[in-house]
Design brief:
Number of domains: 1
Radius of gyration: 22 Å
Number of strands: 34
CATH superfamily: YVTN repeat-like/Quinoprotein amine dehydrogenase
Helix content: under 10%
Number of helices: 3
Length: about 525
């Protein structure tokens, strides 16, 4: 069912901005996008548990440490996006890629683990967002023989699937292109670039008591064929800017946007390979190639302009999973003025901090230890502070995760009397942290991570790990599962408003919640 053309959506966008008619833009076809919060949908697929050894079988403690004693810090305040909710709009939570939630997570000590196996070969949901009615949306790469990209709606209480839509088959290539990332606006519309390499939007409708993913539009990108060949270009990420333009980037370096006013696409070619995800503020859209960090914007004629290009050390053509920087850009700063990525310098990487307006390099921070230094996760950005996790030593999917080197570090940028960043200072380092991803929960002052115990020699034991934002000390670790099925491939946990936590792993979805 096609309720609007994209040009009609542009008119509705202006209605929202100038005359508060956003309700029309939201509902579209006359039914609310999701059911009321107290409604429960019948499953179309009952959760099939992943194979998991018990702590007793492994002779390990299921929980080590102490329950969380909340030490809340102020919620992160950033310039709000006109079309996004505060949380759950992007892969790293928001349009700044802050990886900071005003939520809690679990407390412990008794934690229930529930799972849903989605595929024999792969079943990973790299991104999960939470709907207003509590349900989860995931974009999942599911494979028994070939990889299907599936928009999936999970019951947040048990991981049953209540709706799904097959977005097509993608090549079996270890990257995020073809639909791992999507954008969800405040009205729960989903903007995504599937393997067909078209720009698509979906919303959820309840039909005869059952939710369905309904496509609003599918727009061809000029000169971009469906992604079929292994080494072919694929749509990597999509995002809305502050004017409602639908931006996209392609792994081969093409970047563009779909204009909601004219239904036309404008493009440019950076000529450099692209991975990771974009960030956006009121000035423009930022992305990192294998060679440089960019800010792009739109001029008065609607053409894409390059505001600046900032080079970084790309290393020697290799990285943990892919060449170049392993991070998506993170916008941060008490003055809303900074952006950071990590370079790929040989032996020891650096967090490089740039001025958001000019692209000028402000400072760089050596991370972790020589020959044990790399990351595949964006920084946590909170005010003038940054937090990084170590992913060096990780060999990728289907390899042991316990070879990943340990380390989590927090830094603060230093400003001079005029407010300009001139240096940095360490806040703390935890050289023993096994978490290879990090998300900050401001409501409790906890940094949440997930990783394999490096002290186990012959198999992977994966844990949910809580650290203190204040000190970096480990609060607790809770056993989740063993073997490759539970490998998140450096992915992060997702925090539900009710405290439940979720993560996508190699073969499925995992839920972790307190036992009352």
């Amino acid at each position: 069912m096609h309720c609007f053309s994209f040009s009609h959506l542009g008119a509705l966008r202006f209605a929202f901005l100038f005359s508060a008619l956003m309700a029309l833009f939201v509902v579209g076809c006359g039914e609310s996008s999701t059911a009321p919060a107290d409604a429960r949908f019948e499953p179309i697929h009952i959760a099939v548990p992943m194979e998991r050894s018990t702590p007793e079988e492994l002779r390990i403690e299921p929980y080590v440490g102490s329950p969380v004693v909340p030490q809340p810090i102020p919620p992160l305040e950033i310039t709000p996006h006109p079309f996004f909710s505060e949380d759950d709009s992007r892969i790293h939570n928001d349009h700044y890629n802050s990886a900071a939630y005003n939520r809690t997570g679990v407390a412990g000590p008794a934690i229930e683990v529930a799972t849903h196996k989605l595929g024999e070969l792969t079943g990973i949901c790299a991104m999960m967002t939470m709907l207003k009615n509590g349900y989860l949306i995931g974009s999942c790469f599911r494979a028994d023989t070939e990889v299907h990209v599936m928009l999936t709606m999970f019951d947040n209480e048990n991981l049953n699937i209540v709706a799904e839509r097959d977005l097509g088959v993608r090549p079996f290539r270890p990257n995020a292109a073809g639909g791992a990332y999507f954008t969800m606006d405040e009205d729960e519309n989903i903007f995504i670039g599937p393997p067909n390499n078209r720009l698509e939007r979906y919303h959820i409708e309840v039909v005869d008591g059952a939710p369905e993913f309904v496509q609003d539009f599918s727009k061809e990108v000029p000169g971009l064929d469906p992604w079929v060949e292994l080494d072919g270009p694929g749509l990597q990420d999509t995002v809305l800017d502050f004017e409602g333009r639908f931006w996209f980037m392609v792994t081969d370096g093409r970047v563009g946007y779909l204009d909601p006013e004219t239904d036309e696409i404008k493009m440019t070619n950076l000529g450099e390979g692209l991975q990771n995800s974009m960030v956006v503020d009121e000035a423009g859209v930022y992305m990192v190639t294998y060679l440089a960090l960019y800010r792009l914007s739109v001029d008065d004629n609607g053409d894409i302009k390059q505001d600046w290009r900032a080079e970084y050390d790309p290393g020697e053509g290799t990285g943990v999973l892919l060449p170049g920087s392993g991070t998506s850009p993170t916008l941060f700063g008490t003055e809303e003025d900074l952006i950071t990525i990590c370079d790929n310098a040989p032996s020891q990487i650096n967090a490089v901090v740039f001025d958001r307006a000019t692209g000028e390099r402000r400072t760089e921070i050596p991370l972790f230890r020589p020959d044990e230094s790399a990351t595949e996760n964006t920084a946590v950005g909170y005010g003038d502070e940054l937090l990084f996790v170590n992913d060096s030593g990780y060999g990728g999917a289907f390899t042991p995760a316990r070879t990943t080197h340990t380390g989590m570090e927090r830094y603060r940028v230093v400003r001079n009397e005029t407010g300009t960043v001139t240096d940095y200072e360490p806040v703390w380092k935890n050289d023993d942290s096994i978490a290879n991803s990090a998300q900050l929960a401001t409501a409790t002052g906890v940094v949440w991570g997930y990783g394999a115990d490096v002290d186990v020699d012959d198999e992977d034991h994966f844990y949910l790990v809580a650290h203190s934002w204040e000190t970096g000390d480990e609060i607790f670790r809770a056993y989740v599962g063993d073997d490759a099925e539970f490998d998140p491939i450096t992915g992060q946990v997702h925090l539900h408003p009710d405290g439940t936590m979720y993560i996508g792993t190699l073969n499925g979805a995992v839920m972790m919640r307190d036992i009352e």
